[in-house]
Amino acid sequence: MNPILVLWDIDRTLVYTGDIDRRVYKETFTSVVGRPPTALPARGTGVTMPLAVRELLRVNQVPEQNVEKLAARIIAELPDRLASHRELLATDGIIMPGAVDALAAVQQAEGLIPTVVTGNLRGSAETKLRELGLISYLDTTIGGYASDDSHRPALVRVAQDRAAAKHGCSFSRDTTVIVGDSLEDVRTGLEGGARVIAVASGTTSEEQLRDAGAQHVLPDLTSVTTLLHLIGRASAA
């Protein structure tokens, strides 16, 4: 029987670093553009960092002809800028309720392969997970990141291909499950080729997640037994 690839979202599913993320966006925009932004990306949307950066530039009235060039510079700088706030991440970053036990249970369960699919750039994702003590529960070498593709649904195939190369078996919608909190996580699974277990731990309600097409919805990650059961059901659906 093929193993199940479990793709964890990071922000608002496993951790919350929102104020730090917004500080990093502000600092990096100011460094690259030469003035502070008057508006910042919307909270909890789940869009990839490259898309958020382009929107950040546009809502701050950067001329369209300069957007791509400046976006590339900001994107290149963001992971190092976040890493410069390691101590702040460790002290002010929040681990979401149940996340540690849920990650440990999935890692230890036979036949489950845990990694990430995230709107974060790889460097940013690994910094968050490392500083909050979660990286050991995940194989980040086979994840899908915004640095691979700004179109989030494409990241499912990225992770599936990397996992296939490492484990010697293919992964399809039937053997891939996303665990995430946003409408973007649901869309990523539906369009990218994975079942979705949504967690209403972010800015999106259980009803909204169900209406968007999530196969299963949890209020949080505190019931490990339920989560493991749903991972099995989602892959068998």
- By DSSP, the count of extended strands is 7
Structurally, the number of domains stands at 2
The secondary structure category is alpha/beta
Named at the architecture level, the CATH assignment of the largest domain is: 3-Layer(aba) Sandwich
What is CATH's topology name of the largest domain?
Answer: Rossmann fold
Percent in strands:
5-15%
Topology:
Elements: E1 4-8, E2 15-16, H1 18-33, H2 49-59, H3 64-83, H4 86-92, E3 94-95, H5 99-108, E4 112-116, H6 122-131, H7 154-167, E5 176-180, H8 183-192, E6 195-199, H9 206-212, E7 216-218, H10 224-236
Helix pairs in contact: 1-3, 2-3, 3-6, 7-8
Quick summary:
This protein has 237 residues and is an alpha/beta fold. The chain has helices at residues 18-33, 49-59, 64-83, 86-92, 99-108, 122-131, 154-167, 183-192, 206-212, 224-236; strands at 4-8, 15-16, 94-95, 112-116, 176-180, 195-199, 216-218. 50% of the residues lie in helices and 11% in strands.
Could you characterize what this model shows?
This protein has 237 residues and is an alpha/beta fold. It has 2 domains: 156 residues, Rossmann fold, CATH 3.40.50.1000; 73 residues. Helix content is 50%, strand content 11%. The chain is built from 10 helices and 7 strands. The strands form 2 sheets. Strands 4-1-5-6-7 form a 5-stranded parallel β-sheet, sandwiched between helices. A two-stranded antiparallel sheet has the order 2-3. Helix 2 crosses helix 3 and helix 7 packs across helix 8. The relative contact order is 0.18. The mean pLDDT is 95.
Name its key features.
single chain; 237 residues; alpha/beta; Rossmann fold; 2 domains; 5-stranded parallel β-sheet; two-stranded antiparallel ribbon; 7 strands; 50% helix
